């Protein structure tokens, strides 16, 4: 019998199951109030619009093209629409700067493959998006914590990477309503990141999955927009790679995302796609373009109304039910609230007790830390929870945390 573990590549040893994907199974249990899944509410998907789009596509002149192989760069009318949308947020570019991927997760995988050699260092925030760590781990990097506050210098990143036997290859972060914290990097932090990237001479990977989900506060220009502006409006001179997605605004199941960058980067990504899956789903790209052209702004406005209400409801419930010593973020958008428990309390242990006694699910925060810290943190998602679920679920969770706090003090 073949010993499969003996023939797997060394990079496969760092592949781990996503704790979040495993927790999604809890959504199937009717007795569980789940704040675990960082997924859009399916009731808000534009069902009618997609039904009409697919009917028009398959019943019209695009039918053959929709079912045929296509170019690796992506469906050009979709890229053209994106060029117009990107200009609205300060990112002037052409179709040649836009590359369509099978979800932004594929973009992260490609970028890890493109830049990381074993032993190189990726700079990531603490905490950071778990899916990014999963994508990068296959390429055997080291991680260092990207600190945009405090006195950390570019030289210190370089020295740490050299001691680990490699070099710093890129900085990765989600600047708007990040997964998992819901926090936003201010303009000064974005400019500081670009300055550090200049000194280290590395690219910046900007994960903009939640870019369109701002419910209040003033919008901050994307990092790529700031990078273009300081380079005289020329995207070809920039070092920022912008990763966008339709998963949070239209439909995640269609798996359509995009990368915006200089043509030099795009050309490399196209070659990688040709070797991996040739191109993203043709018919899904066409359907996305049909729906986006006729109703993207209205769809985003609908999401804002619902998600803002749920965020507000969760923040009110946390203030009402959480005991002293528990802290949480107050995001201006996105889908998440990040909770910090009293020191010494463990989120994973709390989850086991919560599911058993309170029937409430969340994601323990430790999984989001590349360095294995963060045991006393957890992530709550409000995107799929109604008012009753939020109020009752946070009430139960607060009761459990209060009991654990008293037990630890005894």
UniProtKB/TrEMBL annotation:
Q: Where is the Aminotransferase class I/classII large domain?
A: 89-397
Q: Carries keyword Membrane?
A: no
Write down the CDD domains for this protein, in alphabetical order. AAT_like
Q: Name one GO biological process term.
A: alpha-amino acid metabolic process
Q: What does the record give under GO molecular function?
A: pyridoxal phosphate binding; transaminase activity
Signal sequence residues? none
Task: Report which superkingdom the organism of origin falls in.
Answer: Bacteria
Write out the entry's keywords from A to Z.
Aminotransferase, Pyridoxal phosphate, Transferase
- Coiled coil region boundaries: none
Q: Which cofactor does it need?
A: pyridoxal 5'-phosphate
- Provide the assembly information: Homodimer.
The record's comment on protein family reads: Belongs to the class-I pyridoxal-phosphate-dependent aminotransferase family.
List the protein's name. Answer: Aminotransferase, class I
């Amino acid at each position: 019998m073949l010993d499969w573990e003996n023939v797997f590549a060394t990079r496969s040893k760092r592949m781990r199951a996503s704790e979040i994907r495993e927790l999604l199974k809890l959504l199937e249990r009717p007795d569980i109030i789940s704040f675990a899944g960082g997924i859009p509410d399916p009731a808000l998907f534009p069902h009618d619009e997609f039904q009409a789009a697919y009917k028009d596509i398959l019943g019209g002149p695009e039918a053959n093209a929709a079912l045929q192989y296509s170019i690796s760069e992506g469906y050009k009318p979709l890229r053209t629409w994106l060029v117009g949308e990107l200009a609205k947020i300060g990112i002037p570019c052409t179709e040649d700067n836009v590359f369509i991927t099978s979800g932004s997760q594929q973009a992260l995988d490609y970028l890890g493959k493109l830049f990381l050699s074993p032993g190189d260092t990726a700079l990531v925030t603490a905490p950071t998006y778990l899916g990014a760590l999963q994508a990068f781990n296959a390429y055997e990097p080291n991680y260092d914590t990207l600190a945009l506050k405090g006195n950390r210098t570019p030289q210190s990143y370089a020295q740490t990477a050299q001691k680990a036997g490699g070099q710093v290859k890129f900085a990765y972060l989600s600047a708007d309503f990040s997964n998992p914290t819901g926090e936003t990097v201010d303009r000064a932090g974005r400019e500081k990141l670009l300055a550090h990237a200049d000194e280290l001479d590395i690219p910046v990977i900007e994960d903009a999955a939640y870019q369109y989900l701002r419910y209040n506060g003033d919008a901050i220009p994307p990092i790529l927009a700031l990078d273009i502006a300081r380079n005289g409006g020329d995207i070809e001179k920039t070092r920022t790679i912008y990763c966008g997605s339709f998963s949070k605004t239209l439909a995640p199941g269609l798996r359509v995302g995009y990368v915006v960058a200089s043509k030099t980067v795009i050309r490399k990504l196209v070659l990688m796609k040709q070797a991996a899956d040739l191109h993203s789903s043709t018919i899904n790209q066409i359907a996305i373009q049909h729906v986006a052209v006729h109703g993207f702004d209205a769809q985003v406005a609908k999401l804002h109304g619902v998600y803002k209400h749920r965020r507000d409801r969760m923040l009110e419930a946390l203030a009402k039910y959480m005991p002293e010593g528990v802290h949480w973020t107050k995001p201006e958008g996105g889908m998440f609230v990040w909770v910090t428990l009293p020191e010494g309390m463990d989120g994973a242990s709390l989850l086991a007790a919560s599911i058993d006694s309170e029937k409430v699910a969340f994601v323990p925060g430790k999984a989001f830390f590349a360095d294995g810290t963060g045991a006393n943190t957890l992530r709550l998602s409000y995107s799929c929870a109604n008012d009753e679920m939020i109020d009752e679920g946070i009430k139960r969770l607060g009761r459990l945390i209060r009991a654990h706090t008293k037990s630890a003090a005894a």
